[in-house]
Amino acid sequence: MPSKTAKKPTTKRAARRASRPSLSALRHEVTQLRARVEGLEDLRELNDAIARNAGKPGIPWAQAKVGLGL
After folding, report:
1. From the first residue on, what is the mean pLDDT of each consecutive set of 10 residues in the chain (70 residues)?
2. pTM above 0.90, yes or no
3. Lower CB count within 10 Å: N or C terminus of the chain?
């Protein structure tokens, strides 16, 4: 009769191999972390720009559209 417990690795090497993440999983994680860092850098730049422009008058939308050629 088969046991209901999970099969355990029989050697130390098999146990280490089972616990290691694959290269594709690591690549995916690095890609996600890189995107997160880029997002945080963008947020930092936005917050710096908001602080630099605090108290300065904004540009009216009609003038901005003309300047952008819209």
Report:
1. 64 72 95 98 97 92 93
2. no
3. N
